[in-house]
Amino acid sequence: MATESESNDGPFTRWVQGAISDPERTYRAMFYVVMIFFLVTTLFPLYYLLVIALTPTSAIQDMGLLPKGFNPGAFVEIFEVVPIHFYLFNSFVLATVTTVIVIALASLAGYVFGRLEFPGRVPLMLSVLAISYFPPAAFLLPLYQLFQGDVMVFGVQVFPRVINTPPAMVLPFSALFLPLSIFILTTFYSQIPDGLEDAARVEGSTRLGALFRVIIPLSAPGVATAAVLTFISVYNEFFFSYLMVTSGKFTNWAPMVYGILNYQTQYSTLYNLMAAASIVAVIPVAILVVVAQEKIVSGLTAGALKE
Amino acid sequence: MGTETETRTQRDAGGGRSGAYTRSVRWLETLDESQFAYLLLAPVFLLLGLIAFWPLLSTFELSLHADRLTGATRVGEFVGLQNYVELFTGQKALVNPFFSLEQPLQSALVVTLVFTVVSVLFETVIGFGQALVLDQDFRGRRWVRVAIILPWAVPIVIQGMIFYLMFQPGVGFAVGPLSDLGIISSQPFNDLGSSLLLIIVADIWKTSAFMALLILAGLQSIDRSLYDVARVSGASRVQQFRYITLPLVIPTVAVAMLFRTIDAARVFGLIEASGAGCTTVPSLSCQVVTTFFTIGRYGTAAAIAFTTAGIISLLVAVNIARLARGGL
């Protein structure tokens, strides 16, 4: 595959001459070199996790390309040391609940922005967009005080204390990832021909009837795209996952972030378990990427490059 | 758009449901299109108002209040822009300086700037390369695409963990050789320069894919017949790239870079999870968190948060202007 320049002068000269006379061949060779380079650089860190995970704790020293020993038992031990499965479960629940909320709200907003004409449409849309650009740190302080139950208006507590419970994470997640889904769904809804909706209305279906019977079924691919991206985003999120749970206990709905970090803080020499836990936590998103790669590609591009 | 016929059919309104439901469906029919739009948007803006708009204003309000006793000032007293003035003149005693002329490299502003600029530049170049590879037709392209997207889907905490395991002295093989060469120190996570370098590498590893996907979309929107014309005219591959691909894909690259810049400027999780920690690498987001949680100075933390938001708003304004020109 890759072009090998050899120390011997003959073949090398021949190869250079070939390259000059047939540039296409050189481009092809270059392409394969570059492609393999990218494959190695993107996959090596994940492979390295496997190397560490399979090496027994005592043998971990200056790890290179191959595991020293073979200890698949690490993948069982991780569940015994830190109940990583509960943390993963928490992350799944938080991601699922957030996805449901985001899809419900973004479907409404996407329909309105994509299909209706009304005064203030552009400013409202821009305000939604602007939110997605602000750093989470800009919302953190008031939100933390709100979720602590410390915000008072005329001596009345505005919001119950929800730190260490799902709402403290689900609410910021929803606000954080809503704009992207609104964007994706607006694009999808605006592509549905007007005639379909008009036909349904003429046939005598109500506004909601037309929305639920005609428009929403047609937007299923857009909804799936937005759902996949939202789920992955929540699963990957660090900032609020880390700061809105003060205890770090899975019984307080601490997500996977804490499951992984607990190894670093409490079992700071069990490197093989850190790696094994990381692999287990990556598997769900890896499967999602393989299954839904088209959706991810179209969603990311629709969300960013709206011409 | 929707006809304004006020048809009320028994099939939709009713269907064995309660009277209240029927009445509300009928009431919806009496709204005009704008009212209907605002009604559907209400829940969205209720959530965004509580979780985003209000906190932003509240952060600004908080930043105008004192957080310690200085002379006649009490905690919580209104001090106007004093917090901001003290931040930029380096009078604040923080865990790490926000901005200081004496130690510019250790200040949050400079660290964030260096991280953002360097990582976005490298991501652009690498992402462009990946996009060019994915733009070709070859067997197994689907799987190469999966491999390139995979790092993007790796959770931040695990991205940090991977680099923690690679550069933990004694665990990864690379620390020894690299510190012998003087590229990183022998305890990389205790040293700002080394940590910053590793965090930049980790960021490039994870987010080049995002760049690649956006640039790929740009490449695929180029009219292929242009290349046919160029080939017939005898343009080489290099010339085709230089005179067709590059000029047509530059706008996309610019947008992608803006997105990545906005995103990189908020770096926090990677720093915490990689073992470097916020005290070693004080990014702006880090500094908000340490000032708020570690030393409990709310006014100052809010001022840092709002300044960060302000810097990013400038970038956002550029993007909004672009979108507004494009007519959404």
UniProtKB/TrEMBL annotation, chain A:
Swiss-Prot/TrEMBL keywords: Cell membrane, Membrane, Transmembrane, Transmembrane helix, Transport
Start and end residues of each ABC transmembrane type-1 domain: 88-292
Cross-referenced PROSITE patterns: ABC_TM1
Main localization of the protein described in the UniProt heading: membrane
InterPro entries: BP-dep_ABC_trans_perm, MetI-like, MetI-like_sf
Localisation: Cell membrane
Listed transmembrane segments: 29-54, 87-112, 124-147, 167-189, 210-232, 273-292
SUPFAM superfamilies: MetI-like (SSF161098)
Any one cellular-component term (Gene Ontology): plasma membrane
Pfam families the record matches: BPD_transp_1 (PF00528)
Membrane topology: Multi-pass membrane protein
The organism's place on the tree of life at top rank: Archaea
Family that this chain belongs to: Belongs to the binding-protein-dependent transport system permease family.
UniProt name for this protein: Carbohydrate ABC transporter permease
Organism: Halomarina ordinaria
TrEMBL record, chain B:
Keyword Iron part of the UniProt annotation: no
CDD domains referenced in this protein's UniProt entry, alphabetically: TM_PBP2 (cd06261)
Entry keyword Cell inner membrane: no
GO cellular component: plasma membrane
Domain of life where this protein originates: Archaea
Residue stretches making up the ABC transmembrane type-1 domain: 109-319
Chain segments annotated as transmembrane: 36-57, 108-134, 146-167, 196-219, 240-259, 298-321
Location(s), subcellular: Cell membrane
Family under the similarity heading: Belongs to the binding-protein-dependent transport system permease family.
Protein's name in the database: Carbohydrate ABC transporter permease
Species of the source: Halomarina ordinaria
